[in-house]
């Protein structure tokens, strides 16, 4: 069946249609916008990324995901039982466990699908640090509306109405003063407005 156009997705120069998909998927990790946690211990939730993982591997992945320290503060550490969907945990904590799960298999390709979009500013910063550490030594494909998430990317593709509108790294796109620069300016203005609202609320609360 013809689609009317020929589009290729290549991985290290090879068309994805020529790859062994089972083997390819085994080398992928994915972190989604809404982390999916299951009823069970913290260790069991991380181990879902690699069923034969040792406790040492679990803790190594948690450290890479900025999760180890807060896990140790839980009532039973890694053996703390989580409620379904991670009830009682913050969005940032749940996301870091999901990142650890994605990293435990040491994937060559990491897909990040709006991984910080549902987080508050403080949680976003902690999770972003984890994602930057996780991206070292592997290829990352990031889908994001929060431009702070992709600031350090080697290549940014700016989409508009399903079409690649601009491409380049952060500095190149800012210099073009086009769509990316406009979106960046708008987001920075919103951060400034919300920061002032936050400061005003606390100033009046103290009076």
UniProtKB/TrEMBL annotation:
SUPFAM superfamilies: P-loop containing nucleoside triphosphate hydrolases (SSF52540)
Gene Ontology cellular component annotations, sorted alphabetically: plasma membrane
Cell compartment(s), UniProt: Membrane
UniProt entry tagged with the keyword Transmembrane helix: yes
Entry GO MF terms: ATP binding; ATP hydrolysis activity; ATPase-coupled transmembrane transporter activity
Keywords: ATP-binding, Membrane, Nucleotide-binding, Transmembrane, Transmembrane helix
Domain ABC transporter: 1-186
Gene3D superfamilies: P-loop containing nucleotide triphosphate hydrolases (3.40.50.300)
Membrane topology per record: Multi-pass membrane protein
Main subcellular location of this protein, as a coarse class: membrane
Domain of life of the source: Eukaryota
The protein, known as: ABC transporter, ATP-binding protein
Organism: Opisthorchis viverrini (Southeast Asian liver fluke)
